[in-house]
Amino acid sequence: MSxxxxxxxxxxxxDNELYRDYANKADGEGAVITFSFMTALPEGSTSSxxxxxxxxxxxxxxxxxxxxxxxxxxxxxxxxxxxxAANSLIAFGQYDMEGDTVGAADAIYYNKPxxxxxxxxxxxxxxxxxxTKGGQGIHxxxxxxxxxxxxxxxxxxxxxLKGKELASSAMGxxxxxxxxxxxxxxxMALQExxxxxxxxxxxxxxxxxxxxxxxxxxxxxxxxxSGAKYKVAINLGAGxxxxxxxxxxxxxxxxxxxxxxxxxxxxxxxxxxxxxxTGNLENNSLKGGAGNDKVYGGAGDDxxxxxxxxxxLSGGDGMDYLSGSTGNDTIWGGAGADRLYGGSGKDQFxxxxxGDLGDLNSFDRVYDFRKDDxxxxxxFDANVDVGGRQKLTFLGNSSGDWKLNAHKAGQFYYNxxxxxxxxxxxxxxAADHYIGVKGVTSxxxxxxxx
Length: 450
Prior knowledge:
Helices cover 14% and strands 25% of the residues. It is of the alpha/beta class. The strands form four sheets. Strands 9-11-15-17-19-21-23-25-30-29-28-27 form a twelve-stranded mixed β-sheet, with no helix packed on it. Strands 10-14-13-12-16-18-20-22-24-26-31 form an eleven-stranded mixed β-sheet. Strands 3-2-4-8-5 form a five-stranded mixed β-sheet. The protein starts with a helix and ends with a strand.
């Protein structure tokens, strides 16, 4: 739904060979926007009502505009600078508007043939009341500045929003959010156009369920669901959707959250229930907490903790650290030289292909193998050059180099001196891969799932 809402808010605005309907030259590019307050009607204004009722902004009215613009700079990469009326990109004016109309605005746009941005005029009804804390005045200014920055009415066009989705946008006429803030979809649309602001640069912790849209521009940050009363799904990817209990089709529903497209959250903590946690391209620290959790590291050198429960830990790419702790866990390092700890319980250390094994210099190590644990090779094809899945063959234990049989791929033995499984993947009679295994003095065939 968030993608559709952004389309609804961006509407029919265009970027073609003649013009671009925004205050920047490309999506994601920040903007410095000058603004001014009209001291007289612009030249060429023919409206008799404007001529009769035009008035300048008072100090209180200007303070409300400053508050609105300052707020927008905290949620999108847009900086506002006050300037003179002749050169500004937004000119604020007011007069006694007819009927129920309280505001009007056109959009700043980039005139490509002339190589310049064209001014937008933002008009407000001179009779509305202004306050920096809320009310019709600041809501009107936010709405009209949204138009100046390129947002449309989300109830119009082929992607029109309805019901509670429409009520979540300050660009509609049925907004139920705070008067002095934009809605979550408005923010997402502005961020798609102008990027994320350079705010929240420190190490921050965000409680899942508190914020619909998580915005952050730096530091090492954490999405924390440890207090959730139901299972959670956390996705730390850019634009990733996280939720408590059930995923809704609507971001507005309780327990739903999205990470901003330009925001990076490095770490996550799950609840005490059965969670699913997915990392991103960074070096993540992902903690499942209690419950039977599924934790996926993705790229980066990650640290995955299952804590209590029967957990699945999957490191993905990178040099990962995986710790199952208590419970019967499945530990899968994936690609890269990983450090694997099962903890107590009957654990499985899973290897799916030769790509999971590394080489003779950089390889996975199991640091606490116990006699009730298993090394799982059941997804392994020992010889991909032969049709069907070929099982690996365990030869036994040796204190030195085992004489491997040539012409038989997929043989392996345990070297009791180096504490490593030695694997010949191509059948040339020489070692190609190691898996370090500590915790036992020798290995048995029963320790392997082939």
